[in-house]
Amino acid sequence: MTCLEAQSYIMSFVEGKIPESKQDEFVRHMKNCKNCHDELEYYYTLIVGMNQLDNNEELSTDFKNELEVKLNKMEHKVKGKQRMRFSAFSVFLAGAILVIFLVYANCLNRVYNFEQNSKLSSQGEYYFSRELDGHLFFSDRDLVYESEINNIPDEETFYERVHLYNILFPAE
């Protein structure tokens, strides 16, 4: 914002009617340009003082401080709106990323399921049935259970115990 533009908004600022689109530029210009700030202070003191006299209000003793407070309030208001826009954009962006991630994960899941179903349908009942059909032996018997039964030691009879005793401790 140029000095001429900033000076054209001085009256609007004093009346509290400066357009929102120009508030940020106006505040920045007034904080950085000493000449425009001095002119704003002059007009603010003159107009606010005249309004206070016209309305029979108590005349302010520190117009400069009131002006700084008003400028700071406008600056905080503008920054708050900017933060709100940034926050809204951030939330929207995070939501969009989440939706994209979920769509991508769903697509990967569908591709995986399609691949698995394709493999399963092409493999048939047994994975190697085409290549090893003649070599594979399928039985209805439970071979693990049968091997456990075969490995159970039989009970020794009295005769076998005596015979084992005689072998271990021969009589001399």
Describe the protein.
- This protein has 172 residues and is mainly α.
- The model has no long low-confidence stretch (mean pLDDT 83).
- 76% of the residues lie in helices and 0% in strands.
- It is rod-shaped and about 140 Å long.
- It folds into 2 domains: 3-123, no CATH class; 129-168, no CATH class.
- The termini are far apart.
- How big is the Rg? 47 Å
Instruction: Assign an overall shape.
Output: rod-shaped
Number of helices, where a helix is a run of at least 4 consecutive DSSP H or I residues: 8
Determine the structural class based on helices, strands and strand pairing.
Answer: mainly alpha
Helix content: over 70%
Please give the domain count. 2
Give the SSE string. HHHHHHHH
* Main sheet summary: none
How far is the first residue's CA from the last residue's CA?
126 Å
Question: Into which percentage range does the β-strand content fall?
Answer: under 5%
Number of beta-strand segments: 0
Based on the structure, what is the oligomeric state of the protein chains?
A: single chain
Unreliable segments (pLDDT under 50, ≥5 consecutive)?
none
Average pLDDT: 83
